[in-house]
Structure formats: C-alpha cells, structure tokens
Design goal:
The complex is a heterodimer of chains A (214) and B (203). With 214 residues, chain A is of the alpha+beta class. Helix content of chain A is 29%, strand content 23%. Chain A is built from five helices and nine strands. The longest helix of chain A is centred in the N-terminal third of the chain and has 17 residues. The relative contact order of chain B is 0.09. With 203 residues, chain B is mainly alpha-helical. Chain B is globular and about 55 Å long. Classes of the chains: A alpha+beta (214), B mainly alpha (203).
C-alpha cells in the first residue's frame, strides 16, 4: 500500500535522523538486521546526513585546546573487543540484546487460545510486545488507537495489504481495521510496537509523529 | 544516470580530494596516533558536529560535550574507519547520532559501544551490497537535486534541523496535515529517484 510505504520510508528517515521512540528504533534495527530490503535506502539517507554535516555552518568551539588535551590524555587503545561469539538465536541481534533471552526462554502469557504475548517494554509512549500466533489462527478483528508496526520474526501472516514473512514489517494505521491470519504451515512470532496514548515532550528531536520522540 | 558520477562544475572533484585527505588523516591517527593529523580533523569536524547537535536541540555546552565524545571515538577507533564504506563525514554523522541517543537515554555506559554498527566491521554478507561510499554520496546529492526544491527543502528541515512538523507548518504557513503528508511524499520520492538510478547502474 502506498500510504503505508510512505509512512515506512518516513519512519526509516526518522531512524537515520535519530528521532524515533526507542521501541520503534529497536524494531527498525531488527528489521534491518533481518532484511536487506531497506538497508540501501538507509545507507543513502546516512550519506545524505554526512553531506549535510559537511554543509552546515560551523559553530564555535569554546574549549578547543582543553578538548584536544583531554582527548590526547585519554587511553589511546581500547582493549580489542572480542568479536562476539556467534549467538545461536533466530532473533535479530538488536532484539536479542534488548530482551536478553531467546525465543525458547520467553515467559509467554496466553491472551486467547492460539495467541500468546510477552510484553517487552513500555517506553517513549510506545508499547512493545512479542506475539506468538498459532499456525492458521486468525487474530480478532481490531483497529488501533495509534499506529502499529509488526515485524515478522518467524512464520508469516496475511492481512488485507499483503503477505508478510520473516523480516517484513506491516504498518497499520489507526483507521485500518485489520485482521491478520497466520500462515497455516508454521506458528508465527512477531515483534509488535504500538503507539500508545502517552506522548513524551522531550527537549530534543521532535520530528515525525507517530513513533517519534516528542 | 551516467552523468551522476562525473565530476561537475560544483566541485565534486574537489570533494574527492578532500575526502582522500580525511581518509589519509584518519589512517595516520589509526597507525601513528598522529596528533597533528587528529587536530586537523578536529578543527574541521568538531565545529560542524557541534552545530549539528545544536540544531537538533542541544544547548551549547551539551553539544560540545557530545562533540567531545564523538572526537574521542575518532581518536580511539580510527582503525575501524573504512573509507570504502563511508566518508568521514557520514561515519561521524552516524557516531554523533548514536552518541546523542545514548546520552538522551542516559546510557553513559554505552560510550564506545562495541555493538555500534558504525564501529564494527561489516558482516561478510553485507559487503557485496556495499556501494562505494563516495559514489553513494554523489548519487544522493544528485538525487536531492532532482527533487523539486520544495521537497528538498522539507527533507532538509525534517531531517536535519530538528524542527517538529508543527514548527515546519508554522515556518512554511502550510497546514500541519499537509506538512506531514508532503514530508512523507518527499522521502518516498527521494527513494524512487535513488532506486531508478540503481536500475540504470545495474544495466
């Protein structure tokens, strides 16, 4: 859908600009980890960030010499960080690091027969959950108060916009009455971030709504 | 868009020389802890990083503190800079963005986060899809030029000025809903231009 594609492009731009609410940022990082589809565009936007940094009117540095002295006095070498052992998880690494456990160790709560949930976080006005949906299960029809982003981690599902598999993100607006149905050959596990009613008014970086700080 | 990569009158070839210079300076910092080289990088980038952070809403002192953290990262991690993957400016932009998020999240312990992707060698499967950093930057500059000025302006404001949608609405005199949909449209349009370039390049 064009509208949701546009929404998602703007969300990627928010990720690059560094203005996303943390759960949305986690979802985008996880998506980029699993799927190559948007990596090129994100790199492009980062290159745009680099060119804009080159073109900005410089600010005066008040403590140049002291800053340089402090840098030169700092330890020159960090201990070489050991490349992380190949973590045996099917979760995207950013999500694995955030949750601190693998799928097998998730303390699921049953919401409905065939639907389990694990609340990952409530922060920046968003709630983030893992959802487990039994193969072939149709979710109850629902609309959203805010926007919902759903990243497929395992299996797949279909809603009126299309079919989503591992690494794909579905973007549902508040006016969409969507009714996802899990593929019937495999249980579906998703990471869902929903914009809540709470809105932060932090001092910095209020760009896009929804999912953006501010 | 074969023309996109040709040095043109607006100084692309000068930029390549400057980029080569930055890459060499960073290599000197990495290999020899060269303080003169570092000071030159500092004098170029620190004032820009500070200006960028101020635009995003930091006060002067905070912006300078974050700038210092970015420059310390450059001092310590210069060896991880890979000129084929990012220009110096893009690499520092990413580090500054991530440092700012960490500081907002108050996660000072994340200083020099080893998991920061800009501070990690690329996964082998990523390398095939890497476009040369300068080509990418040039391509993005060209794509921005192809956007109608109004859209390019909205992208700059939304992306890099730290302005909220409502502030942009106020500045431009456009209704808020219009600002939102136009910004979305502008990013999607930019993406289409970039992807059209990709299609031409691979032929």
């Amino acid at each position: 859908m064009d509208a949701s594609r546009e929404q998602f492009d703007a969300l990627l731009a928010g990720y690059v600009a560094g203005t996303l609410a943390e759960p949305a940022r986690l979802l985008v990082r996880s998506h980029l980890d699993l799927s190559p589809v948007n990596r090129g565009f994100v790199r492009d936007l980062e290159a745009a960030g680099g060119t804009m940094l080159e073109e900005i009117a410089p600010a005066r540095i008040d403590n140049r010499d002291a800053m340089l002295a402090a840098i030169f006095a700092s330890p020159a070498e960090e201990p070489i960080s050991v490349p992380r052992m190949a973590v045996r998880t099917r979760l995207p690494l950013p999500l694995f690091d955030f949750i601190g456990k693998d799928v097998a160790d998730i303390p699921w709560r049953t919401k409905l027969p065939g639907l389990k949930e694990y609340k990952v976080a409530e922060m920046d006005g968003c709630s983030a959950s893992l959802l487990w949906i039994r193969a072939g299960m149709a979710m109850p029809s629902h609309t959203h108060h805010g926007t919902e982003l759903t990243l497929v981690l395992e299996g797949g599902f279909t809603d009126l916009h299309g079919h989503y598999v591992r690494g794909d993100v579905a973007y549902a607006d508040d006016d969409v009455d969507h009714r996802p149905v899990a593929d019937d050959d495999e249980d579906c596990i998703c990471f869902a971030v929903t914009e809540g009613s709470l809105r932060l008014t932090g001092p910095i970086g209020r760009l896009f709504a929804p999912f953006m700080r501010g | 868009m074969a023309d996109a990569f040709r040095p043109d009158s607006d100084g692309s070839s000068v930029r390549v020389t400057v980029e080569d210079r930055f890459s060499r300076l960073i290599a000197k910092v990495a290999e020899d802890r060269d303080r003169t080289a570092f000071a030159e990088l500092f004098d170029h980038f620190a004032p820009r990083l500070k200006a960028y952070l101020i635009r995003l809403g930091s006060d002067g002192a905070t912006a300078e503190e974050l700038t210092q953290e970015v420059m310390i990262t450059l001092w310590r991690k210069a060896g991880l800079f890979d000129a084929t993957r990012a220009t110096a400016a893009t690499w520092l932009f990413r580090i500054a963005r991530n440092r700012r998020i960490d500081s907002l999240r108050r996660d000072r312990s994340a200083l020099l986060d080893a998991e920061d992707p800009s501070l990690r060698p690329p996964a082998p499967e990523d390398q095939d899809e890497e476009l040369d950093a300068r080509m990418r930057e040039e391509r993005v500059r060209e794509a921005m030029k192809k956007l109608p000025e109004e859209q390019a302006d909205l992208i700059r404001r939304a992306f890099f000025s730290g302005l909220s949608h409502s502030q942009i609405a106020e500045d431009t005199g456009l209704p808020l809903g219009t600002v939102k949909s136009r910004i979305r449209l502008a990013f999607t349009r930019l993406r289409r231009i970039l992807e059209a370039d990709d299609a031409v390049d691979t032929n």
